[in-house]
Design brief:
By secondary structure, the chain is mainly β. It has 1 helix and 8 strands, in the order αββββββββ.
């Protein structure tokens, strides 16, 4: 049964991709409207998001992310997970084509395991400013990358200032 569902999903994605490619071929000025993405990075270990392209120059997305935070035990870094948003502006600059600002509000940290008492909902913030390269005018799977600077400020932890480096895949749905 699982194999039938997987086969159906692959056929559905292939059909969606062919329809989307036809739409983009009809009008070369088209840009995506809805997209999903996942990325791996240095301080922001993993993120998954869904977004909307507002115009050919701007996009907004919501994301879930896991990052390293300051303060550690046994020389291993602590981590934090949360929800946030990403704002992107698209304009060619040298070999980059976008500038992004990302914000994550930590909802849980590994430090919660140590402190079993009072647990506030808001446990700190993560900010990321970066320049990168991303394809917004082709349907289907596309590779993207970004470099920049990030700040992780979790409660009960040291503030971490660190260079940002990310690689990921996005899927431009429509």
């Amino acid at each position: 049964m699982k194999y039938k569902q997987l086969l159906f999903l692959i056929i559905l994605l292939t059909y969606q991709l062919s329809l989307c490619k036809e739409q983009f071929n009809e009008n070369n000025e088209s840009v995506r409207k809805i997209f999903i993405y996942t990325s791996l990075g240095v301080l922001e270990v993993l993120s998954i998001g869904i977004g909307y392209q507002i115009s050919k120059n701007a996009a907004i997305s919501i994301k879930g992310s896991g990052t390293w935070i300051g303060s550690s035990a046994l020389c291993f870094p602590s981590s934090g997970m949360g929800l946030g948003f990403k704002l992107s502006y698209y304009k060619p600059i040298l070999f980059f084509n976008n500038f992004s600002f990302e914000y994550i509000s930590y909802l849980s940290t590994t430090l919660d395991w140590v402190h079993l008492g009072y647990k506030p909902l808001f446990k700190g913030s993560y900010f990321d400013f970066n320049l990168g390269k991303e394809t917004i005018n082709e349907c289907g799977f596309n590779f993207f990358w970004a470099i920049g600077f990030c700040i992780s400020a979790a409660k009960e932890s040291h503030v971490v200032y660190f260079p940002s480096l990310k690689f990921g895949l996005n899927y431009n749905i429509y």
